[in-house]
Structures are given as C-alpha cells and as structure tokens.
## 1
Amino acid sequence: MLVMKFGGTSLADRERIDTVVSLVRSRLDRKPVVVCSAHAGVTDLLLQGAHRAAAGEPDLSAVRRREHELLVSLKLSPKLVEDDLERLDQMFRGLALLGELTPRSLDQVAAFGERMSVKAVAAVLRKRRIPATAVQADEAGLVTNGRFGRASPRPEAYTNLARSLRKVKGVPVVTGFIGCDRDGNVTTLGRSGSDYTATIVGRALGVAEVEIWTDVSGVLTADPRTVKDARPVEQLTYAEASELAYYGAKVIHPATIQPAVEKGIPVRILNTLDPTAQGTVIRPPQGRRRPRVTSIASKRGIHLVNIVSGRMLGQSGFMAKVFDAFKRHDVAVDLIATSEVSVTVSVDDTSGLPGVVQDLEAFSKVTVKEGAALVAVIGERMKQASGLAGRVFTAIGEAKVPVLAISYGATKTNLQIVVPEESEKTVVRALHEVLFGDG
Ligand code: ASP
Ligand code: MG
C-alpha cells in the first residue's frame, strides 16, 4: 500500500487535478490511499470568513464562488458540496449572532475546506473510472487530543483508521488536516496539517511509502530565494528532516516525520508540476553513515531572552524554575545556551512571552532582544566532519557578522547560530558557499 498526499496547490484547478488523476492511476497496482488538502486558498477564505462573521458580517460568497467554479470546471455538479456550504452558512450566521470566535468553532469552520475537496477528488476519480470513496477523517476515527488548531493523534486513532479504511470501496480519498477529540469536537492538526495526516494514515495501515505531492521538487540545500545555486537534496534522515521542517523550510509540517519514524516508513517529497523529478526521500540512514551537511535553514523573527541570576552558580533547581515559567505560559523554546551565571534561550512564538518575563523577573534579571534570526546547519553525524565548526565560524567572521548565541546539541544533527536578523541572508549565503560551493 501507498499513501499519496496532495497539497492545496496540487488541487488548485482542473489542470492540476487532471495530473492528480493520472498519478493515482499510475499507482493503482500499489493500492493507493489518497490524502487531500483543501483546494489552494480555501482554508484562508474560511478563516477570514469566520473572523468576519464573528465581527458581524456573515458572508459565504467567496467560499461558495471558489468551490462552484472548481466543480463546474471539473464538470461536476455544485450539489456535491451543497450540504457543506449550507452548514457553513448556518455556522457563519451563528458566529455573527454570538459575536465571538472560539478556537473550537474556528477548527469546525476550517475543516470544511478538506471536507469539500475530498468529495470533488473522489468524484473526479470515479468519473475517470477509478473507483473511489471520500472519507472524512474524523468520522473514520482520527481521534486527537483537544488542542484546537494544533491537535495531535491519540493512540486509538491508528487502530480506528486501519479498521475503517480497510472497509472502504475503491481508493479512499481522506481529508487531511482534520480529526476530532474524544468528545467528538472537530479539531485541526495545524496549518499544513495534511502532511501529518498522510503519515498518520500511513502508519495506521503500515504502508510501504508515503508520497507528499507538492509544488517543489523536494528539499533543497538552502532556500532558493536566498541562495541562487541551492541544489536538491536526494536523501534525508528522519532527524535531519525534522530539524529542517522546524526551521521554516516550508516543505512539510514539522510533526509529519513522527508517525513515519515509528514504523520506518519512507516519506518521499515529489512535485506535481514535474512528476518525474526525483524529489527527496526521507528515511532511516542507509548503509555506512558518512558525516555530511545536508542543508542550511533559517528562521527570522526570533527573540533572545537572557536570564541572569547572580546566584545561579551551584544552585540546583534554577533551570527547573526557568523552564517552568516557559511551560506555564506555553512558550516553546528553541535554542538554549548556558553559562555559570546566565541562561539564554531563543523563542519564535512570542505570544506568551510577556507573562514568562514577568514570572522570571521574580527571581532573576531578564532582557529580551528582538530582531534576531536563527540559522541552522543541518546534517547527520556532523560531529565527525572535522573542522566543520571552524569553517562555519570563519565564514561568519569573514562576513563581519556578530554571533549572538550558538548551540550544538549532543546528537550533532544541528548547529544553531543566532545572528542579527538583517544579516540572515548574508550568513546563509556565506555558509552555503563554504559548505556546498564548488571549491
Ligand atoms: N488546508 C490546510 C491549510 O491550508 C491544511 C493543509 O493544506 O495541509 O493549512
Ligand atoms: Mg503543504
């Protein structure tokens, strides 16, 4: 068996959906299970619509127009999604009456993009004589925790999905992105969450491979907008891919790798616009593992929080107190660097940061520096690549960029460097040149 996941851009219009049909047809002998995102732009329209509805302006016309145009171009009847649009219309009006939008209702609305797209894709497949059935993942048992907007699966999700998908007639066409909590409330797995659904379904069925069909030919050695001669990366290990996904290399949703790792399922990133391109395969390390750098990623908008305690030296429990404050306010920490008297952490989602700072100030001196970028050099077993750190820091020094913090974890999959935001591109280019340049 095989999971084929198609992202929003791969389902954007008739032409793209034609490609999807031929790709599914070409793999019928491998028993594909299809996972779909919403058509490009629909989730955004739904989210905007929900916000406007809660502000007193319930208006479904943009969503309705987009869905209808697509269905008409596919020669399908708009009736196919009429029930969904009707429910959405009621929800928008309900939101307008209540005048408020909870994370729970936002997820309920957002889910409709996928609910409708799977119906269209399954219908197109059937029209082209490929038996297919649309499957709503929440109804098929994709049970998650109750974290609206960023849910993750509960253990029973896998057995539920395996049981219900095995019963489906023809090719199952499953909604990405959505699930439900134990009380039956609809949840979503976070933006781009359909990638995550693909590996969840893959793990549930124990498939041979998960294909993520997107609009780029896999992962590159750096962001091509920054580095002109960035090259495709043929293979990545799970650890490398997780690091990369995390650093804004927007190719896959960060949690996607977890379910694949648990069963050692290869995840292949492929391009619907260029289906024969090799793409990138993410899988366990093959054969002898040579130390190597696979890519450079970076993330802007980083805050550096510096926490100083005159008496940290030898004080047990100080770190626990520090991280407890971050936990209390649900702020995730990226890089951590410590000395005897201070701890520096970098944070990218800063919504809870003021609360953290207030708590930390009860027992330490805190400064927050904004406008930093985190640059990560990623590669399995980089530790054995002798002189690597030297080359990296020489290159940054020669570019005359100050290093604000560094971290090099024990697994050495990732060397992280914090620099001023305005130097991000300079640093990425300089590092790409020394690590991947022809010289
Ligand atoms: N439709 C959702 C989004 O736009 C999920 C996905 O596309 O993977 O974020
Ligand atoms: Mg995506």
## 2
Amino acid sequence: MTVLVIGSGGREHAIAAALAKSPQTTKIYAIPGNGGIAQFAECVPGIKATELEKIRDFAAANRVDFAVPAADDPLCLGAVDLLEAAGIPCFGPDKAAARIEGSKVFSKNLMRKYNIPTARYESFQDAAAALAYLDTYDTFPVVIKADGLALGKGVIIAPDRGEARRAVRELMEEGKFGASGSSIVIEEFLTGPEVTVLSFTDGTSVVPMVASTDHKRALDGDRGLNTGGMGTIAPSPYYTPEIAARCMEEIFRPTVRAMAQEGTPFRGCLYFGLMLTPDGPKVIEYNCRFGDPETQVVLPLLETDLLEIFRAVREGRLAETPIRWKDAHACCVVLASGGYPEKYETGFPIDFGGADGLAGVRVYHAGTKQLAEGTIVTAGGRVLGVTALSGTLAGAVAAAYAAADRITFPKAYCRRDIGRQALEYLKKEEN
Ligand code: AMP
Ligand code: GLY
C-alpha cells in the first residue's frame, strides 16, 4: 500500500517509521515531512500540512491508498472529510469530531453534559463578563485558556486576581492568540501527576495505549515557559492498574460514547491529558491526535503492525484487533534550539556523533531539513527527539541521555531531568 503521512514533527517521524515496518507498506510519502523522514520516505516539502486541496490532489495523482493526517491543524480544518470524499481512506477524526481539541468550550461542555471528571469551569465570549466573574472568584491560582488551537501555549496559570485579569485582557482584548482567544475558559487549578493516555478508537471501542508522562516546561524543575513538550517517559509509573480501570470506566468509554451520542463519533487517536488529583483522575485536555513527544515513546513500544490497527480503526474492526506491547521502558529527550519556545535561529548543521546507530536508540527528527548535498540542518524549535528503550525506566533515561550527549549543533539545549520525578516516585514506592 502507498501511505501518506501529513505533518512534519517528531511525532510524524515516529508514525512514519512504525508504518514503514508494516509488511503491507510499499511506499511512504510525507507532506511536508522532515530531514529524518526523508531517510526512508519521499517528502513533499513544497506543500504545507494545511494546504488541504493540494494534499488531496497530490494523494489522488500519486495513488495514495491510505492517509494519516497527524497534526492538529489539518485535522481541525477537515483534512479527513476532504480526503475521504475523494475516495482516500484515512486514519483520523473528521472535522466535527476534531472539535474535541479545536474548541475548549466544546470539550468542556461535553464533559459537563456527560459527567466526565474535569476541572470546574465557566466559559466566556466577552471580556467584561469574564472580568466580572474574576471579581467574585477567590481560589488562586486560576487557569485561563484560549478556546482555539494555540500550539499548547494558550493556557495561562494566574497566581492571583491581578494576573488573571491581565490574562483575560491579553486574550480577549489584545488578541494575543488571535481568533483562538475570542472565547475563553476560566477553570479551577488542579494538582497531581500528569499522565497522557493516547487511545485508538473506532467510534465504538476504545483501546488505550501505554501511558506516558510529558515534561512541558522549557527548563529543569518544571520552570520556564510552557512548550510543546521537552521529553517523555513510558510507561508512566503513576498510572497504576487501579487508576487505569477507573479511567476506562469514568473517562475513556464515557467520552467515546458521548461523541457518538452527539452525532460526531470520534475515529482515530484520541489523546487524554489527565491529572491524577487527590479526588481521582480528571481530564485536563483532549487532543484529536497523537501527542508530540508522547508518540516518540509510545510507538516504539508497540509490537503490532500499526497500519493494520489504523485500517481496523477506519473500518470499525478495532474490537477484533489484538494489540500487543513490548515489556520495556522508553525515554525521549528533546534537543531544542537555544531560545525555544521563543526566538531561535535555524540552519545549523547537526553532528549526530553516531547516536542513531546505538542499540535501542531511535533519533526522531522534529525540526530538521536535509540539504541537497545530504547535510541535515536544524529547521525548528524542537530539533530532535532522542528515544532509548531499556528493561527499566532508569536504564531508558540513562541511555537516552548517553545518546543525546553525542549529538551536537550550535546553541543546542535539552532538559537534564526528563524522568527524574518519576524515578524518585518509584524509589519512594519501593520503600
Ligand atoms: P493544556 O494545553 O490544556 O494541556 O494545558 C497546558 C498545561 O497547563 C497542562 O499540561 C497542565 O500542566 C497545565 N494545566 C492546564 N489546565 C490546568 C488545570 N486546570 N490545573 C492545573 N494545571 C493545568
Ligand atoms: N505533548 C503535548 C501534546 O502533544 O499536545
């Protein structure tokens, strides 16, 4: 089969690499792809992931048998609707179902209507009403979220009323995140370990993947700005079998049922961003796609043919499809450009130092580009995701750092504490 992956990050590299292992795959295209995907697939850098008509025409002209729009923008814009209408089967939600990520107001209202545990909230369409609400609000910090997509940056945790008012003004009056801030959600601040559970769902059945934990802040010790994610571990040690069973009953099945009852069944990868609070697991956010960099630790642990799972989801056969996982641990350390998530430079050549040849190591490219003569240069904020597998979490963390430390490019930086809190938690549990 000829397969098309739409997107350009480390997530897309991990998805394309897993699809390349399928005996059913004969050719992979990536739009636009990156320097890592270009090593084994044909990238089409001239088309953007959001140019849906061009993507459809390319897919039709190149006889694509199956398409995987992996990033949030194309999904929320309706990539699946357009490709399916042209007769190209896809893995991913249609535009209506993608609203579960594309609109926080939609997802919060869904959770309220179907009694799915989440932070208490109110939503607002105008700044005066939001500011008046804040005048009566008295538990700080409080969380302010832009309604629409904002690259994971439209969330402000305000320590007091003054900061909260400022955030509302920035989002609603100054348009800091453009149209995505014209509606906002103000919600209760939750505490506890954060866990991501990616799941396969065909609209009826839901099969959770191995749980992972992301590290979203830019700097060690969870300081600095929020980023797309600076590193991940899987399985997440906080996610015990008891918590998993509870999430299945209280969150995963109810969400899939709710989407079907709303007339917008969700097919694809449904991302549950959870906080394990003292009152039980609660939903922090839904995404309509695989997480980045969660995918870079989850898919390397998958034993089953990913293309087979994708086709089963598309055809509503998920319940009959066995899915197996490796009994191993994975850690991904993100190497970023100095300055990310704010201003940074690109175009620096990368010296891999043999990291990608190490046993158990996979170097996923995120922001890279292959020049005509073959050199790989930096081309984004998050440059590489260095994943290592091992029998233990400690082993995976050590191996990921050993590999990451071999890779050099000017102004590279990474967090030095990916997995550290989880290891400390495991040590406490043992004693
Ligand atoms: P989101 O884009 O909704 O995932 O939010 C980004 C990050 O902000 C999350 O990963 C959390 O660390 C934090 N966050 C979001 N909502 C809350 C909340 N209600 N309470 C505490 N932290 C939150
Ligand atoms: N790593 C967070 C996300 O993919 O949304």
